[in-house]
Design a protein that fits this description.
It is built from eight helices and twelve strands. It is of the alpha/beta class. Helix 3 links the parallel strand 3 and strand 4. Helix 2 runs parallel beside helix 3, helix 4 crosses helix 8 and helix 6 crosses helix 8. The longest helix has 17 residues. The model has no long low-confidence stretch (mean pLDDT about 85).
Length: about 230
């Protein structure tokens, strides 16, 4: 039975999500403020976390940052505004996905199922390290280096980079990346891929690299191209 933490200061929303999650077969833990969410995340190894942005004591962004210090548990952020700022902040702090209020509980459960199925498909027994020139991507440790410089990426950014690098010169549409990394029944906006790629490029460009790049193929999607 998978464990889920639902953290939101709106008790009605928590109650509805809890009811749906129990029907899906989850063991549910709830939290009504950010400090409580952090405390419970340290006490239990959750399989997935639903995390509201606007909460008392500590907001969702702060909670996400704290959790990411010790865990790669999938996190879905819940935002009331749906603005690019909220999405970028959530993704940049390590969230895997986001849902904009108002949303249906069925949509939330679909997002959760998609993420958990993707994780279940991952082969955790084989070494997953790829090196191209000065770029090293380690999917076992979720680390990325350019030369001797460690690049701090979110979990989802590492997964996107790994997918592109491991399929060198293959063009991925936004839909390809959504299906590979979020799951076939992902219900969100494909623009989340563009947001992740934009943030990923900014971080990689902190260190000069002339032998490889993530290229935009206009009207299609993205690919990793290397001249070495």
């Amino acid at each position: 039975m998978p464990d889920i933490l639902i953290a939101d200061d709106n008790k009605q929303i928590v109650s509805i999500l809890e009811e749906y999650a129990v029907k899906e077969g989850f063991k549910v833990t709830t939290a009504y403020d950010g400090a409580e969410a952090i405390e419970k995340s340290l006490e239990t190894h959750f399989d997935i976390i639903l995390l509201d942005v606007m909460m008392p004591r500590k907001n969702g962004f702060e909670v996400c940052r704290e959790i990411r210090k010790n865990s790669t548990v999938p996190i879905i952020m819940i935002t009331a505004r749906g603005e690019d700022f909220d999405r970028i902040m959530g993704l940049d702090n390590g969230a895997d996905d986001y849902i904009v209020k108002p949303f249906s509980p069925a949509e939330a459960m679909a997002r959760i199922r998609a993420i958990l199925r993707r994780i279940a498909r991952e082969d955790t027994t084989s070494a997953r390290i790829i090196i191209i020139g000065d770029l090293t991507v380690n999917l076992d440790e979720y680390t990325t280096q350019i030369g001797n410089k460690k690049i701090t990426l979110t979990k989802k950014e590492v997964e996107i980079l790994w997918t592109l690098v491991n399929n060198r010169n293959k063009v991925f549409s936004r839909e390809n990346l959504i299906n590979s990394l979020w799951g076939y029944d992902y219900c969100g906006d494909t623009r989340t891929v563009d947001t992740h790629i934009k943030r990923l490029r900014i971080k990689l460009d902190e260190v000069p690299h002339s032998d490889w790049e993530i290229k935009t193929i206009w009207g299609v999607g993205y690919k990793f191209e290397a001249s070495i």
